[in-house]
Design a protein that fits this description.
With 227 residues, the chain is of the alpha/beta class. The chain has 6 helices and 8 strands.
Length: 227
Amino acid sequence: MAVLRRLFVLAACMAGAAVLAAPGFSARNVAGDEFQLGTPHFVVHYQSDSSDPLYTAWAITLRQAGDIAALAEHAYTLELADGFPAPPSDSGLGGDDRIDIYILDNTTLGGALGLAVGDTGNPQTSASIYLNGEAPAVAFTQHTIAHEIFHIFQFGVWASSSIGDYWLYEASAEWMGYRVDNYLVDQASYVSASVVPLAINAWESASVAEGAPPAPFAKIVFTNAGP
């Protein structure tokens, strides 16, 4: 199973979503945002000029942007159906009130596949999503997109500034990613029960290393709900 690296808020937390965002990352301060593709709840911002050496590595096609938007809508529908309140409006920060997904380069994202960044420091806030255009085979999957969208839902309910809470954000977002993609591994095969203990052990090791509590949430979910 591919080791995914995603960013969310501050510090490293777990193997499946290994790196979290440093607070210095500036939300909405993006380059190469030349094209937009919109759906009812999302706007995908991307660069499509692969002939420009500045954007060659992470330029994507209109079809790829459409696929990202479709996967985002699917994840949004399923996560909303679970009873979570709709994320708050960003008051037009990305051009309108829809959730913005920006495709950026690997360097800007620090090597992460995905990133969710809150727009304010308030306990509840809107947010935007950033995906790594240089790693489309994994960054543009249903799992990664669902994981990042769940962070948007989380921000709308409770955006904690305590590092001790981040394990819960990451563990639950990773769980949601697997739920939305039907527990696929590399988009080709299903997660077997034998894989679950390895995932739990990896989450615990990363959480404890960062001074956060172990991941009992993940244990409870997999024990009671199963893969």
